[in-house]
Task: structure prediction
Amino acid sequence: MDFCGEEVPLGDPDVRERLEKQILLALWNRAQVILWIKRSGRYMPYIEKMLRQHGLPDDLKYVAIAESALLPHIGSSAGAMGYWQFIKSTGQRYGLRIDRYVDERRNIFKSTEAAIAYLKKLYKDFNSWTLAAAAYNMGERGLQNAIDEQKTADYYHLYLPLETQNYIPKILAIKMILSDLPAYGFHISRGDLYSPLQFDRVEIDLPDSAHLQLVAEASGTYFKTIKDLNPEIRGSYLTRGKHAVLIPEGAAKTFAARFKKLFEGSLARKEDAEKIIHVVKPGEYLSGIAEKYRVPLSALLRWNNLKMDSQIHPGNRLIILK
Result:
């Protein structure tokens, strides 16, 4: 057995026990494994292609399954998010936009590019894909400290945080099961897999914010479809500026003209709207103010550049459009 071409010492009883534990835990939760398999049909074609383009080992694709089970919105108590479970600082360091409007950790293409760049850097640091993956899990500084203190760079003989000690065995268990499904009792055909994403990518340059419903209508689809294709978009609006948005395949031909008409109509309605200035009184809160003026809370937040957890204080002035 190997990981990225690096031999796994199965003759070591401790290594074998760790691997068997991860295999048994996975097989105990067979429903989860079935979902790994089916989701791999949706995402693995893109991950595998990007790994090949960068000359990285194919085994690294199993890191994404170990990290997130290929779910875009999954998060951790440490603040990690998305397919490759980046914390905010690391994601931003590798080019991901992470703010109140967009979180590219939830974009399969952008986050995979960032993960590839990070794993390349870790391999350069440690000259081992096994150690690179371990560092991906626990951080390069912590791993280097353990190597320096324990006088060995052999992952399988390092005493590391228990999560990291089990991390490579977990990836190997995933590799073993997905590489030979019938051997582990999974009789799933290619037709059972979720289909790869089918989409057109369109560029939008906005002089003002726009509701995603406009994108959905211009694409001839539903709001939910646009959100599902673009999980990195937080909330219901695109902000002013340039955006690359995925829409259903085949919709790009007529999108620009339809969106232009819808967007101009929304701007005209906004210009015609009555603007009210509300001065916050003691004891008032955002949802109560939205209810008072019979406007959506999301609209009130957008008009005033606020977030759901923003604090308001007596004397603050809020814009209300009616």
